[in-house]
Design brief:
Chain lengths: 340, 261
């Protein structure tokens, strides 16, 4: 018996080359994001028709509907989409950094730090910009803590980084519980909404949108290096990737993106975990495609979830994090079982 | 065989390699020239892999100098170094799903510019590498569904796709069936002989060393080493001491073989 397959059955080099190109994925995901955006602008207490949306988009005055769309729905939709993209991108980066497909942007304690910062600000009766600054400072503090503690004698190995992050998260969780226990009844509801993730107070989407664009641009030249990093430090180093520098860059980038997302919409869960995971299952683990595709899909998912959050029990609103978790848990369990 | 006339590709001078204060190799002088296959032999844990990693430039030696094509290893830009020396690791981690073809294409990384993608030529090089390890037809298989031996051959294909003049191989034939062991070693012997590559391989089977290697570096512990032509280094007495087990030399058809006594 021959050990080699007959030549006629071999896939041709041209077919294999064509199979590796997936140029249609990004335009398709961009189209989905566009559709989600139109939906987010159209639905709500006042339904805006497609024709009206077009008039508003082209600059014609559209009265009350125009005011609702441009001053209320648009900033919120931009914030939700940008943060969904940020969280999915940060999650994809963390999964490479920790070389673990089950890592998420919060695994290194960044959301915990942000939560402590935000809740402390609420406890002090602060709102608006100062609250966001406090949350961001908390995220940076957690980041610095994990970074400092994980640098032992050797380098920052994935395991050491992960364990340090888990412990810092646990510490932040205890601090959050403490603040909730001593907080007044009136501030409790706001705190809980913040903890679950809520886009209703997001009024300044510019920072998140800018961070997402900057993050994607920063990742573009690193994507092939990241492919190698995902295969192991040794492999990457042998093939000419500056591993120590790259790991540091990815850590700082993913942390910064997460901190901005959490500051804007709170700790929205599961987007950063499930989206990169789904994209990887569907289109493979090439970071050149995975990173932008995750960002687009994450943006679409959080935008749709936020649209649902403000419409399903209108006029009351749900925290969007509840919806992403309700969606994320079954999807995630399904994925886990499929992998068994 | 005019290997001795060529300038060495890889050179070590007074090289000290140590791990946590334990000397693995002291004062090593070594030249690896194009066209030759050098085998590194020694007991488990004696430092073969660590030495190989040091020769690859992944570890800083405790003392001494290492040069590749006459230039200090540390002075090579990482990507340029990766075009010139390849390392086959002893174990292969697969954290994420990946096809065989994508795994082999990883070897092309140093040859592709930061702003470019794999070209058609790169895919063809990867396919030729797969053909060399008899894995054509496996291109779209997921690497994690392969057997240990098949996975090892994928790693060898990735190393071939890197097209480096210096190949450092850490136990290249582990997990392989007997026929693939011989084919793999014949392949690297051929690459050395026909393409003038320099091959350094950690090998366990002394009879394979006798058959395929030109020279051998025997690590004997405590930083001691012996290096020279295979027939000089591989002698029953010194090997028996190095491996802590008496070895007996047999001869058949003009060839020497070692068997445990």
């Amino acid at each position: 018996m021959s050990r080699h397959p007959p030549a006629a059955l071999l896939p041709s080099s041209a077919a294999l080359r064509a199979g590796r190109r997936r140029a249609w994925v990004l335009p398709l995901l961009a189209l989905a994001l566009g559709a989600a955006f139109a939906l987010a602008l159209a639905v709500g207490s006042v339904t805006v028709s497609a024709a009206e949306l077009w008039r508003i988009a082209t600059g014609d005055d559209a009265g009350t509907a125009g005011a609702i769309v441009t001053s209320l729905r648009l900033p919120r939709a931009l914030a939700a989409a940008a943060c969904g993209g940020l969280l999915a991108l940060a999650g994809a980066l963390m999964q490479v950094l920790l070389r673990n497909p089950l890592a998420d942007p919060y695994v290194l304690g960044i959301s915990g730090g942000a939560a402590v910062g935000a809740l402390l600000a609420m406890l002090a009766g602060v709102a608006g910009l100062l609250l966001e600054v406090s949350a961001f400072a908390g995220a940076l503090a957690a980041m610095a803590l994990v970074f400092g503690l994980s640098h032992g004698q050797g380098s920052r190995t994935p395991t050491r980084l992960l364990l340090t992050g888990v412990i810092v998260s646990a510490g932040c969780g205890a601090a959050v519980s403490f603040i909730l226990a001593v907080a007044s009844e009136q501030s409790l509801r706001g705190m809980l909404f913040w903890l679950m993730g809520d886009a209703s107070t997001a009024s300044r989407p510019g920072v998140a949108v800018g961070a997402l664009v900057a993050g994607l641009v920063a990742c573009a030249p690193l994507a092939r290096d990241l492919n190698l990093l995902a295969r192991g430090d040794g492999t990457a180093q042998t093939l000419g990737v500056p591993v120590v520098r790259l790991r540091l860059m990815v850590y700082l980038l993913a942390s910064a993106l997460t901190a901005i997302a959490v500051t804007t919409v709170g700790s929205v869960g599961f987007v950063g975990l499930v989206v990169p995971h789904l994209i990887r299952l569907a289109f493979g683990n090439d970071q050149r495609l995975l990173l932008p595709a995750s960002a687009l899909a994450g943006a679409t998912l959080l935008l749709l979830a936020d649209t649902a959050a403000r419409t399903v029990i209108a006029p009351a609103q749900l925290p969007v994090g509840v919806l992403t978790a309700l969606l994320g848990v079954p999807v995630f369990l399904f994925l886990l079982n499929r992998h068994r | 065989m005019s290997a001795a006339a060529c300038p060495p590709l890889l050179s070590a001078r007074s090289l000290d390699v140590s791990v946590a204060g334990r000397a693995l190799c002291t004062g090593l002088d070594l030249d690896v020239r194009p066209g030759e296959l050098l085998a590194i032999v020694g007991r488990n844990g004696i430092g073969k892999s660590t030495l190989l990693g040091t020769l690859a430039g992944l570890r800083t030696p405790a003392a001494g100098t290492l040069t590749l094509e006459g230039r200090a290893l540390a002075d090579w830009p990482a990507r340029e170094l990766a075009k010139r020396r390849a390392l086959l690791a002893q174990s292969h981690e697969d954290h994420f799903a990946s096809t065989v073809l994508d795994t082999v294409l990883v070897g092309r990384h140093p040859h592709i510019g930061r702003w470019s993608d794999e070209s058609d030529a790169d895919v063809d090089i990867a396919l030729a590498a797969l053909a060399a390890v008899a894995l054509r037809g496996f291109e779209l298989r997921e690497v994690r569904t392969l057997s240990g031996g098949e996975r090892q051959r994928v790693a060898i294909a990735a190393l071939l796709a890197q097209q480096a003049p210096v190949c450092l191989l850490d136990e290249p034939v582990t997990h392989l069936d007997l026929d693939y062991q011989i084919e793999t070693l014949e392949l690297f012997a051929r690459l050395a002989r026909d393409e003038g590559r320099a091959v350094v391989a950690v090998l366990h089977d002394l009879n394979q060393v006798l058959r395929f290697a030109d020279r051998a570096l025997l690590l004997t512990g405590g930083g001691q080493w012996v290096c020279g032509p295979v027939d000089e280094v591989l002698q029953a007495e010194v090997l028996s001491r190095a491996f802590c087990h008496p070895l007996k030399e047999l001869r058949d058809d003009g060839r020497r073989y070692f068997v445990p006594a």
